[in-house]
Amino acid sequence: MSPIKITETVLRDAHQSLIATRMRIEDMLPICEKLDKVGFWSLEMWGGATFDACIRFLKEDPWERLRKLREALPNTKLQMLLRGQNLLGYRHYSDDVVRAFVERVADNGMDIFRIFDAMNDIRNLRVSIEAVKKAGKHAQGAICYTTSPVHTLKHFVDLAKEMESMGCNSIAIKDMAGLLTPQVAAELVHSLVDTLTVPLHLHCHATAGLASMCQYQAVENGVSGIDTAISAFSGGTSHPPTESMVAAFKDTEYASGLDLPLLQEIGFYFYEVRKKYHQFESEYTGLDTRVQVNQVPGGMISNLSIQLREQGALPKMNEVLKEIPQIRKELGYPPLVTPTSQIVGTQAVLNVLSGERYKTITNEVKLYLQGRYGKALGKISPQVQLMAIGHETLIQCRPADLLKPEMNKLKKEIGAVAHTDEDILTYAMFPDIGRDFLEQRNNNSLIPEALEPADAEISKRKAATEFNITMHGETYHIKVTGTGYSKQHQRPYYLSVDGIPEELTLEALDDVTLGDNGEQTHQATSTRPCASKPGHVTTSMPGTIVEVLVSTGDQVKAGDPVLITEAMKMETEVQAPVSGKIKTIHVIKGESVTPDEALIEIE
């Protein structure tokens, strides 16, 4: 047997899984010399969440990150995760954008492209694979592993055979939720190895506590490579620890040959680095065997907890987790991976919080049900499809076949703000935050989000979130369950009083308000009223206004779309609750909004 190949994930998936993709390049470069000496088969360091976090929060140019890591790791292959026709975003891009993106990524130093489609629709992989092969790089086709009545062993084997026939240099099993068990891993790997002529790799998350056993069984059954994370960023919703797996195969025919003491040095380095990002640690990134029942990846649970906390509805988490499998069944059993995990998860939150299933349906669910993400393997509920899109014609072809070339259009839209082809592609991936990033870069005004002090004593000095308060001789038990977005001089807080959910709004009475980053700013007084009348338009969850679809004086009918909001990267059409004339619009594009505010008044 050949030595097992190790892909180290600490520069991408590991910190994405555990600290919300917040690790900065300044904490990667100092350890690169040692990482480069290890002899990893590859280092995974780029993907959709990485790109997003760089421009949204860290204010780093992701292309510059790629170039710096390429220079700092001359002896190690760099690897990225590519969402097929979605690239790094949440929609399908035209073929010319896909080809241009892959070409620029390859020229900037990427070696291995792990390519997947959230629907396992092989049609959505073809152009990406062709582009990677044309660039002379390694194309690794990835099967999104999931379980359902329609996801059989034969189905996965057939997918792998198709990917190999399309020219993939290797195949990967992508177990993003940690659903594999050791026995199933052995059977799946054995079947794939018997069928394929190219190497097989295994990527699995440790959420359920089974990943290390799955990897060992997989290696014994012929898998060529496994994904691991250096110990300081391993376990839970991340991956099995690199040091442990290297030690496990030592003195066997599969021994990796990697230097364990050197790996331990790297582990100690990242142990200290992780402390710097303590504010991004989540209680939902540890061992969670519920994934074997509800199939919800750990990163998805973290996003759900944020959504619910902002609503003061964190106690409803179990209801949401029960709702997700039902939605997944109604949508034809899509694997829960970006972007389908966000599509299903956000709809589950809306269903639970509204108290009525599909009362509000996100735009992404509508697009999914039209077939714009690809073909579902299972049967879609005709009732849900009718509620979402009525009798619209369904897409039967490859969705990208309906898209016209976009590169010239994107180039004109972003104009002089973009200095390079890479800049244009940054804008293409994330138009709003991409433009903001490029403009801030050009104005030398990039400011990364603030990090809380890592000092243990300082970090302990936080306001209590659970306490008793006594008024007029009565004692009440108060527990703060979440906060909403700051809006000028007001900020909503969600809490429970003796177990009963309540909401309050703190309002500054002078010109000074405390922003989310702790800085004092001077704000004008808000005039946005609370929703109290049938004609008041509200949103279902905290979010951002993406587009205002009406103007003052317009006549609308009940059910007409009047706003588009974005929450957790999913867009939702907000509809008019009554028929009438638009009297007042209280919001503009880009503003943060919370439930119970009147965003538009209809009379």
| Individual helix count | 21
**Largest sheet geometry:** 8 strands, parallel, barrel
Shape: globular
Strand runs, count: 22
- Percentage of helical residues? 25-40%
- Counting helices, strands and paired strands, the structural category is alpha/beta
Mean pLDDT: 89
Give the strand order, joined by hyphens, for the main sheet.
Answer: 1-2-3-4-5-6-7-8
Rg estimate, integer Å: 25 Å
Unreliable runs: 456-461, 511-526
Cα-to-Cα separation, first versus last residue: 75 Å
Portion in beta strands: 15-25%
Compile the SSE list and pairings.
Elements: E1 5-8, H1 13-19, H2 32-38, E2 42-46, H3 48-58, H4 62-72, E3 78-82, H5 95-107, E4 112-115, H6 126-134, E5 138-144, H7 153-165, E6 170-175, H8 182-195, E7 200-204, H9 211-220, E8 225-228, H10 242-249, H11 260-276, H12 291-294, H13 298-310, H14 317-330, H15 340-354, H16 363-370, H17 382-389, H18 407-414, H19 421-429, H20 431-442, H21 456-460, E9 466-471, E10 474-483, E11 490-497, E12 500-507, E13 512-514, E14 520-522, E15 536-537, E16 543-548, E17 555-556, E18 561-567, E19 570-575, E20 580-585, E21 592-593, E22 600-602
Parallel strand pairs: 1-2, 1-8, 2-3, 3-4, 4-5, 5-6, 6-7, 7-8
Antiparallel strand pairs: 9-10, 10-11, 11-12, 13-14, 15-22, 16-18, 16-21, 17-20, 18-19, 20-22
Helix pairs in contact: 5-6, 5-19, 7-8, 8-9, 10-11, 13-15, 14-15, 18-19, 19-20
